[in-house]
Amino acid sequence: MGRAPQTKFVSPGRARAPRALTAPVWLGLLLYACTGDIEPYGTSSGAPADPSRPWASGPDVPGAPGTGPNWVPGAPGSNDPNAPPGSNDPNAPPGSNPLDPGAGGDPSSINMVECITPAIGVNPLRRLTHAEYDNSVKDLLGDATRPGLQFPADTQIGLFNNTAEAQTVPVLLADQYLDAAVALAEAANVGTLLGCTPSGANGGTCLRGFVEKFGRRAFRRPLTTAEADGLVGTYTTASAAQDANTGVRAVIAGMLSSPNFLFRPETGGSPSALPGAKNATAFELAGRLASLIWASVPDDELLDLAAAGQLTTKEQVGEQARRMLMDERAKPAMASFYFQWFGLDLLETATKDKTAYPKYSDALRDAMEEETKRFVDDVLWEGDAKLATLLTADYSFLNKPLAELYGVTGPTSDTEFVRTPLNKDQRLGVLTQGSVLSAFGAAQQSSPVKRGKWVRLRMLCQDLPDPPANIPQLPALEDGISNRERFAMHTNNPACSGCHSLIDGLGFGLEHYDGIGEYRAMDQGVAVNASGQINSTRDIDGAYNGGPELAQRLAQSEQVRDCAPEQLMRYAMGREAEEEDACSVVALREAFAASNGDLKELVVALAQTDAFMSYRQPE
Amino acid sequence: MTMDERFVLSRRALLGSMGALGVSAFLPRHLRSVASAQAIPTRFVVVHVPEGMWSGAARPSAGGTSLGTIFDAFQAHQPKINTILNLNMRSRDEGPGGDGHHRGVPHMLTGTEMQNESNAGGISVDQKVANAIGKMSPIASLQLAVRIVYGDTNSKLLWSGAGRAVPAQQSPWEAYKRVFAGVMPTEPVAGEKPPFDLRKSALDYSLQEVQSLRSRLSAPDQHMLDSYHESLRDIERRLTTLPPPTTGGGGMAGCTPPTMGSAVDIKAESNYVKIGQLQMDLMVAALQCNVTRVASLQYGNSNDQCSYSWLGVNAIGHDLAHNNNSVDSSGAKKLKVFQWYSTQAKYLLDKMASIPEGSGTMLDNTLILWVSEFSDSNGHASDKLLWFLMGNANGYFKTGKIINADGKSTNDVHTSICNAFGIADTTFGNPAYCGGPLAALTA
Asked: Which residue of A has its CA nearest to B301?
């Protein structure tokens, strides 16, 4: 690597000082300053970005927790106390660009990180997400009823809903775990599950065989003798009280409500050379792989390998990761990662003004979601799995209403989605799909701010501080003034431009798409100006025009290529990447680069990092 | 017919048949005390509404009795309400956290700095009250909500401790199952052996497992596991609070689970009104049946995503709050929204006031904290807050007043609430932001 002259990490749990409102009133508009630091995503702003701009409806990005240090732009402006007022200086004058490396800064160091001393971050205890719960009971019992849909939603911190820190079990959830365990046990087909009779002459062997086999998958490791004995005792009590089937159901309900199933405790590792760390056991690795790739429990093949001591080396882990990626279970699990990364959980409740967008309906929204799901699936599992393809593919999967929205021909059915070439001058890749553009559009208009922030945060891994309160009203929508022009104050006024020069230039390029992603040549009676400006990036600064060109720039960017591994790391570890993870991040970025941005190889490489193959318990 | 409907019918049939026998002999232990006038429990309810208490129309003024244009819907109940003006959520801008929405919600009922940018740093007042009185009922506290569209910090109102959010149920049908089908004892079928209790068996097993796993974990992981352990313990306590199903069930006269009808899409905005009222029906029934003594109802996210289409507003609450000229230049839409929430307060107040208890009504034996985290939501202002304390908590508060708190802390109100429920503390939350109980409430 070696490009970063220095790497600075921010200490964990850093409290952010309240942001004073420093903006002046100007032209009757109270404007806000971005004098706080712009922080690489994850350091600051737990700061769920407030969409509280009056023109922007709907939630933006719930921000990252302040728990994880992260790499900051290795910019002298932020590291050198003698540097001119720069990104980290709360007293910086309005208008200072918080991402700008400043005088003498080196843009090539933006979001760079260096591996100096091998180490890993801590791994707090993790509970199954509700999706993992549903997948696990499906794999264990064949029950696809998805009881987890009724659980109180997993808390989202940062971009992802699997953050360990938030995985407590309040009484409501404990109640629902017990209810679900009982309902699943009652619905289970005991005969099929056991394949033998738990009562009678060979009943003891039959039952114990079931307890050990089912338990090994549910707990992701062999049961101890005491555990197996205890479950046989549970069977005995219940079968004596009622009947043999009830005995088996009691065993199932017990295991499904056990913390050894609901959580993934990792306590068995062997000594590691990494400070304070242990090498994960083969079974712990099996559990980690199943969680990462299938969002479920391991299969017997994986557990058999673990039992045989053949899930220990990087090669063995990599081989299993590849096998698991070929399995159908990988599809929904990986899709979930991409949907969270792209913020598409916001699509379902994105509210659109019916007058402004009479075409928008639940059906159209669902079609947008289906389009992106099929597109991601296609790129990953049928296509070349390249990040660049995800960003710039010139085709998508459309039904008739979507084809009409996109102005292309081909699909003739509301229910069938057909691979359809896009008009390449108008659309390329996921950023130009209706799902992203609607979830990150306003109710009545486009949203250069939400969309610009989408690019900055999710693709470039650079976070921004929250906007302050007391944001004044934007000028009303009116004919003759484009939506873009309403945001002119952001760039014209120094108090706004500090942050908005980092956001709006990325969003203006998407002005050809209205609030639901329909392409438009005119906006409010004015010809659309979709020229944009990229700045404060490592390698793609400069002017561009329109969505396709923006998509291509992103696809060419090393910074974007280095961002994808960081996002997967967060998702995989259930926490922010920490300073100690630097070597794993570097290894992951190098592997991703070496594969020319192959997203499946990225998963394999992640499974082979120190951060994944070993763990450090929190202290 | 769904299982729930059958349950309602069987309960009604039972209540009818018990009429001649005298009810109390058949009551489960936890309900018996409720039947006697001497032991009517005092309940605590929190209702959260989004985007502040707007000041764009006539407001209550200190010393007066008129609630003004926005809150006129529940003017008839004003004698049983304390209206508190000019409260200051003093902790809110201290410590880590995001913007006003993402700070305001976790700060509002905890009154102390957040642990980090995602989590509150202490216990919320409803949970503190639940710790004091909740264990006298099967469900220590009941959390309900209407259409929370995203699950980040700006929806996390209630905390059982630092870092431990208490979630709410958004489906009244699921909540009904938990509150009535799950907790109320079912009638035994004559001559049949009761079925093996799988749930109790799973509970006992998981409790053992938690204990054995715990010793192998580091302290922070133990803390995480403890959240499950404590929850299981609470469920276990509930089982011992209730008689086993074999002793016969049924509730007190007048305590009948609400009729829920068929489930509808809880995410659809078109069901917002219906879901809210069903949740209130359910809450009141749960309080009346003493299934719980502490309850909450949360409308939407702090960052309001409802467009109030049934009012003809068709503009998103959050946009309205930020004075978006494009959607509401006159403020007329905003007035409709805020007045609508007042009609929901009226719905709850009317309902409680219609249930006789002792010499008064349920409202007399209840305290409702009706709050929002902002005064003016455009400015994300958390000073000059207007909060309501409805009901007098069994005579503890002297109601009917419109009080100028003159910048006193919201923690002072929480201290008064704690005191009303027998918690002798002199402060709430971080004492640095608390001046002790708000004397005007009881004077």
From this structure: A59
* pLDDT score of B391 more than 80: yes
What are B200's two structure tokens? 């109790």
Domain B40-176+262-441 has CATH 3.30.310.50: no
Helix H segments across A557-597? 558-573, 582-594
**Which residue is closest to A179 within chain B, CA to CA?**
B199
Taking the C-alpha atoms of residue A42 and residue A40, their distance in angstroms, rounded to an integer, is 6
Burial track A512-530 (b if 16+ CB lie within 10 A, e otherwise): bbbbbbbbeeebbeeebeb
% of chain A beyond a pLDDT of 70: 82
User: Measured between alpha carbons, how far is B334 from B370 in angstroms, rounded to an integer?
Assistant: 19
Residues in CB range of A386: below 8 A, 6 or more apart: A379, A596, A597, A598, A599
Nearest to A57 among B118, B203, B318 (CB): B318
Comparing A259-263, A605-609, B324-328, which segment has the lowest mean pLDDT?
Answer: B324-328
Question: CA of A473: which chain B residue's CA is closest?
Answer: B324
Judge: A469–B380 Cβ closer than 8 Å, yes or no. Answer: yes
pLDDT at A491 over 80: no
In sequence order, what E strands does A232-289 have?
A: 270-271, 278-279
Across the interface, of A45, A48, A170, the residue whose CB is closest to B154 is A48
A243 contacts A284 by C-beta, under 8 angstroms: no
Contacting B residues, span 90-119, partner chain A, CB-CB under 8 Å: 93-102, 116-119
Give which of A45, A55, A126, A172 to mutate to test B binding, by max B Cβ within 10 Å.
A172
pLDDT number for residue A29 = 24
Supply the pLDDT for residue A473: 65
Within 191-210 of B, beta carbons closer than 8 Å to A belong to 195-196, 198-199, 201-203, 205-206, 208-210
Chain B from 241 to 270: CB within 8 A of any A CB: 267, 269
For tokens 């819907």, name the residue.
B73
Does the beta-carbon distance from A263 to B225 stay under 8 Å?
Answer: yes
Query: Strand, coil or helix: what is A556?
Result: helix
Q: How would you classify residue B68: left for phi > 0, otherwise alpha for psi between -120 and 50, otherwise beta? A: left
Least confident stretch, A251-260, A344-353, A604-613, B383-392: A344-353
- By the 10 Å C-beta count (0-12 exposed, 13-18 middle, 19+ buried), A169 is classed as buried
Contact A66 B101 (CB under 8 A): no
pLDDT digits (tens, 9 = 90+) for A187-198: 999 999 999 999
pLDDT digits (tens, 9 = 90+) for A459-485: 999 988 777 666 666 777 889 999 999
Is the CB of A48 inside 8 Å of chain B's CB atoms? yes
DSSP A427-468: --SGGGSHHHHHHTS-SSS--HHHHHHHIIIIIS-B--PPP-
Of A253, A291, A252, the residue nearest A167 (C-alpha): A291
Measured in Å, how far apart are chain A's first and last C-alpha atoms?
A: 32
How many angstroms separate the CA atoms of B417 and B126, rounded? 9
Digit-coded pLDDT (tens) for B132-180 = 999 888 899 999 999 998 778 888 999 999 999 999 999 999 999 988 8
Residue A594, classed as helix, strand or coil, is helix
Tokens of B240: 């011992």
Please report which residue ranges of B296-407 form alpha helices under DSSP H.
Answer: 317-321, 332-353
Cβ contact (<8 Å) for A354 and B378? no
Q: A445, A436, A444: which is closest to A551 by C-alpha?
A: A436
Candidates B44, B229, B254, B256; CA nearest to B136 is B44
Residue carrying the six token digits 């929205």: A405
ipTM of the complex: 0.87
